[in-house]
Amino acid sequence: MAVVSDQPTIDLREPGGWRRSKNQIATVLMYVAFVIILIPLGLVIFEVIAKGAKAISWQFLTNSTIPPNVMPLGQGGMGAAVVGTLEITAFAAVIAVPLGILGAVYINEYGGGGKSWLSGLISFMSNVMVGVPSIVMGLFIFTVWVIPHGLTGLSGFAGSLALACLMLPLVIRSTYEMLRLVPDHLREASYALGATKSRVTLTVVLPSAISGIVSGSLLAIARAAGETAPLLFTIGLVESTNSNLFSGPTTALPSQIFSNALSPYVGAEERAWGAALTLIVIAFILLFVARIFTARFTRYAR
Amino acid sequence: MSTGVQADPAKSAGSASSLTRRRPLGDRGFQVLALVAGLLVLAILIGIAVSTAQQGADWFSTAGFKGIFSTVWDVGNNQFGMMAFVYGTVISSVIAIIIAVPVSLGVALLLTEVVPRRWGQPIIVIIDLLAVVPSVVWGLWGILVLEPWIEPIYASIASGVNGIPVLDNLFGESNGGVSGASFFTCGLILAIMITPIITSLAREVIATVPAIDKEGAYALGATRWEMIRGAVWPHSQAGVVGAILVGLGRAMGETIAAALVIGSSVQVTSHLFVPGYSIPAVIANQFGESSGEFRSALIGLGLVLFVITIIVNLVARGVVERSARRSRGA
Question: A21-42: per-residue pLDDT in tens?
């Protein structure tokens, strides 16, 4: 009631026709907004497929030597960058996903969902950390890992660390949201059987939220896989495969796209589109799998 | 650490002291592990502030506060003023917000109030797809497709507003031309990139509007639009502001897309169709060739960006949490 009196500008006695038209205009504008977001998405997917498909071949995906920018398409390939992206992202996930899940467990299971001041602070700051720019994460790992290690500091591992910093708050947030949905009677039933808290968490709470946790983690991985900024100062940029994550500079798909995009050569441009298509396909597959898990979780929750 | 570990056993011991004298080691170990993982968030945030401040101190000791507010960026003469980059960051993000907010709110309202659930799913999938397109792909598309296409449009707008007081200053030519790589192109790309986050946060907020408020508005004979203005908007105002601020923070920190399309020109100007620069873009483009005080200045810029985005996000989350608490209480 109070809500309506706050809004004296709405006059229900206005002529009915005008009120209906205003309503229709507003509805049409909402559909227009949806069309507006479809346009750039459609255009970018169309361009990436149209220009990237030309570049994609088995050789492009696996050849381990990235040719110099002047070379035309057909020489060498992006294999080194594909290997780099997969390795760096996978290792970042290995670091960030367990830590993120544990952090969320602390907030929800031990901190009472933010009721104790420390879990409240961690919950709030993890939300703030989601907003920290990815390039700042890159600078952070550069100053604390690359500088102390000198020339050997640039490695896939440093890149993984930077991406893990980016993923950690995302995993915490999504896991926390899922843990909150786990009904308390599951926990209480387990306590009644005499289980310890860690046992309840590990064998009852986490398994019943697992689909949602996997889904959220996959989305975080998808986001990290496409990030360039944290890798700029941490992995270096090389032209051949370095499958050792822990020593020596390496390369990744986003970094290659970035350096090729600024090149004036047609061959480099075409390879950038090919790499962009590869990267988008990886991200979309992760998103697709995540949605399958979400669907399973919502069915379970119902 | 120790207080958190001791507090909880004490509590549970109070309720079941006769049954379990002390908790098994593994149980306590797991709690400590979880606590450490949670504390990692705070440690990383503090670590970022401390490490970048240390590295930036070199620059700050010579440039001082004057350096932050100077617009002169002359690498050859060791002049590292930050204001041009702060300006570019703010301008491009504000353009992005102005474009993205109406679109995001429109889609959020469409999802929550207009289309039936069944049709909502495909729209959500589309927003998700938009969100996972990597920023470097937006940048690539921006520099190779959007820029050449949009430059003639800028040129015709510029000639159209020629001589009109305020519009000429914003959309007119500057130094003999307009450029496809510009503040405005950067703002456009950023707008596309922040639309999904604003949409999904706004959708969450709008979904919490109590059905009884909405039904009340309908019962009074309100049309859907009047219901949105009378029942949905007052309830979700604060949360929507928070969502917009989160989007603003995202736009300010966006690096690679901005680095590719903003034009990389250090200048402070009211003209939007000319090349500019932003904080993340300059760090991304120049860090590789930097050393000494130059590198220190770039890391200092990183700290400035960190502080700005932290403030924006603190305010955003504060607004959202307060409104969430208030709506729960009501």
Answer: 989 999 999 999 999 999 999 9
- CA dihedral (A236, A241, A246, A248) positive or negative: negative
The rounded distance, in Å, linking the Cα atoms of A58 and A44 is 24
Cβ separation B137–A257 shorter than 8 A? yes
A28/chain B closest Cα distance in angstroms: 10
Minimum Cα–Cα distance from B138: chain A residue? A44
Q: Are A255 and B135 in contact (CB under 8 A)?
A: no
Question: Is residue A36 less than 8 Å (CB to CB) from chain B?
Answer: yes
**Looking at the partner chain, which of B48, B199, B260 has a beta carbon nearest the beta carbon of A136?**
B48
Decide if A95 touches B, using CB distance below 8 A: no
* Residue A14 CB neighbour total at 10 angstroms: 11
**Confidence band of B329 (pLDDT split at 50, 70, 90):** low
What is chain B's mean pLDDT, rounded? 87
Q: What residue ranges do the domains of chain A occupy?
A: 14-55, 62-301
pLDDT tier for residue B9 given thresholds of 50, 70 and 90? very low
**Do B304 and B59 form a contact (C-beta atoms < 8 A)?**
no
**Cα B243 to Cα A37: distance, rounded to the nearest angstrom:** 18
* ipTM of the complex in this document: 0.90
CATH topology of domain A62-301: MetI-like fold (1.10.3720)
Q: Which residue of B has its CA nearest to A8?
A: B230
Compute the distance between CA of residue B241 and CA of residue B205 in angstroms, rounded to an integer: 10
**Integer angstrom CA distances of residue A65 from A68, A81, B178:** 9, 9, 40
Q: Does A298 score more than 70 pLDDT?
A: no
Query: Looking at beta carbons, which residues of chain A come within 8 Å of B12?
Result: 197
Report CA Rg, chain B: 25
Q: What is the pLDDT of residues B180-216, one digit of tens each?
A: 899 999 999 999 999 999 999 999 889 888 999 999 9
CA A283/CA A280 separation, integer angstroms: 5
CA distance A125 to chain B (A): 7
Nearest Cβ partner of A287 from B33, B128, B140? B128
DSSP secondary structure letters along A111-138: STTTTSHHHHHHHHHHHHHHTS-HHHHH
Taken in order of first residue, the domains within chain B and their CATH numbers are: 67-329 (1.10.3720.10)
- Please tell me which of the candidates A9, A23, A118 has its beta carbon nearest to residue B225: A23
Please report residues of B whose CB lies closer than 8 A to that of A171.
Answer: none
Tell me the C-alpha distance between B63 and B66, whole Å: 6
Q: What pTM was computed for the model?
A: 0.89
Residue from the list A34, A40, A284 with its beta carbon closest to the beta carbon of B123: A34
Residues in A closer than 8 angstroms to B104, CB to CB, are 33
User: Do residues B246 and A46 make contact, with C-beta atoms less than 8 angstroms apart?
Assistant: no
CA dihedral (A125, A127, A128, A133) positive or negative: positive
The residue behind tokens 């786990």 is: A182
